Amino acid sequence: MECVILAAGEGTRMRPLTAERPKVMLPLANRPMLEHLVRAVTEAGITSITLVVGYGEREVREWFGDGSRLGVTIRYVVQRRQLGTADALRATKGLVTDRFLMLNGDMIVDAADLADLCTREAPCMGVYESDHPQDYGVVTIDGDQITGLEEKSRQPKSRMINAGVYLFDPEIYKRLEGVPLSGRGEYELTDALADYIAEGNLSAYRLSTWMDVGAPWDLLGASAALLARMKPACEGTVEDGVVVHGKLVLGKNSVVKSGTYIEGDCIVGEGCTIGPHAYIRGSTAIGDGCHIGHAVEVKNSIVFAGTKIPHFNYIGDSIIGSQCNFGAGTKVANLRHDHGTVSINGRSTGRRKFGAIIGDHVLFGINCSVNVGSVIGSYSLIGPHSLVEGTLKDRTVIR
Fold first, then answer.
1. What would the pLDDT profile of 323-371 be if each residue is shown by its tens digit?
2. Looking at beta carbons, which pairs linking 374-382 to residues 24 or more positions away fall under 8 Å?
3. Of these four, 74, 137, 169, 298, which has the most CB atoms within 10 Å of its CB?
4. Closest among 51, 99, 100 to 73, alpha carbons compared
5. Which are the catalytic amino acids?
């Protein structure tokens, strides 16, 4: 059995986090999102993967190489222009000669589901019951047969959605030849699936676990779920006087200094300094080379590699890019006064608590305040005592 993973897209909805990396390389529990998917595929018993790459392909190739580090053979196909899922799959024609899994690269799935799906007859689509089906392609099912597929309907006919997990055989490539350009200017895989549905020839497989990572705030939920599964490990140094409640993974050459309190499920990368007297709360992932210093509280957040949050800071429910620096006293709010759901650029996060999305190389002066639901573009410079609200483009300067 082989597997094709679509990993060519930029992920424009993830901006500014994707300014310097493709979406599939965004970190979850200190590993690229795509690595969690590759590991699930290998655990399902599949040893050959074709990655369709495009935007940021160098980062993908450098991280995964030939796949030997993960016990799998990886080859690459380039989709130079992102013209849709049908076009991406069509790029692998001639490389796949038998039944194969096809997966979208921006999700988390369970290896046991993939292994079970591989025992089914092709074509088969993985489906999942969602509490907000209007955000996805909705499927209707009769028994195990898919009877309809409708993209992002305001009045969905069911709660079952297309999860972007498929079992195909080489016949799919013939179907792709007739797929027309859609109104969005893309070649859509769903048009080929419509032919199977009309023939009564597309079955459904109900996934037990599935997490979509389509928007920045989805990173927090996926990260929390992955951290809850991890086993505690300590390859660094924990000084006397540190309190740890819950599971902690501490990387090589990292030090947690005295007086620090860590609770919940947390991961700290390699070469980090935590504390003294820091407070790290549950579901927090801190990347390699970070400094979380004295009297800093970080809660339910993802901090990319190389970021410094060194004195008297609060970061709540936020995603912080790489190589950022927070001046003393700078804080990120995460709760509206009316306790309403936080929205960003008119899109609901679905979260009552959400702080900010901060790109790479953002520098803050002392005593800055970042309001709920803010987005700060990469390479922005925020002067001392500034209030940040709304969305700032890359390289914004606030004096």
1. 999 999 999 999 999 999 999 998 999 999 999 999 999 999 999 999 9
2. 374/332, 375/16, 375/344, 375/345, 376/16, 377/15, 377/16, 377/19, 378/16, 378/19, 378/20, 378/321
3. 298
4. 51
5. 311
- Phi first, then psi: give them for residue 320, nearest 5 degrees: -115, 125
Give the single-character DSSP code of 185: S
Given a contact cutoff of 8 angstroms between Cβ atoms, the answer to whether 182 and 80 are in contact is no
Among positive and negative, which fits the CA dihedral 221, 247, 63, 48? negative
Q: pTM score, two decimals?
A: 0.93
Confidence of residue 185 (pLDDT cuts 50, 70, 90): confident
Q: What is d(CA 211, CA 110) in angstroms, rounded to the nearest whole number?
A: 10
CATH of 221-392, one of 3.30.2010.10, 2.160.10.10, 3.40.50.1100, 3.30.70.60: 2.160.10.10
**What average pLDDT does this structure show over 307-326?**
98
Average pLDDT (19-43) is: 95
- At 11 the pLDDT is 82
Phi, psi of 397 (to 5 degrees): -120, 125
The fourth-level CATH superfamily of domain 2-214 is Spore Coat Polysaccharide Biosynthesis Protein SpsA; Chain A (3.90.550.10)
The pair of three-digit structure tokens given for residue 369, joined into one six-digit string: 């305040």
- Identify which of 224, 245, 182, 199 has the alpha carbon closest to the alpha carbon of residue 317: 224
| Helix residue spans in the chain (DSSP H) | 33-43, 57-64, 85-90, 111-117, 171-177, 189-198, 218-229
On whether the CB atoms of residues 142 and 158 are closer than 8 A, the answer is: no
183 pLDDT above the threshold of 80: no
| Cα–Cα distance for residue pair 267/284, rounded to 1 Å | 7
